Structure prediction request, 53 residues.
Amino acid sequence: MNNEPPVVLVRTWLTLARQSHDVEARDRALEMLKEKIGSPAEIELYMKKHGLN
Prediction:
């Protein structure tokens, strides 16, 4: 991954992806994480690198 998305944006996507009351927002956040970071393993590495839980 050459151009990492900003941490604050990824934090927003993670918050939306973890909530359950708005399925459309959750699905879009998951889509953006996969599109901008990559596979679940790559997302996990990004989270560890930037101290996101």
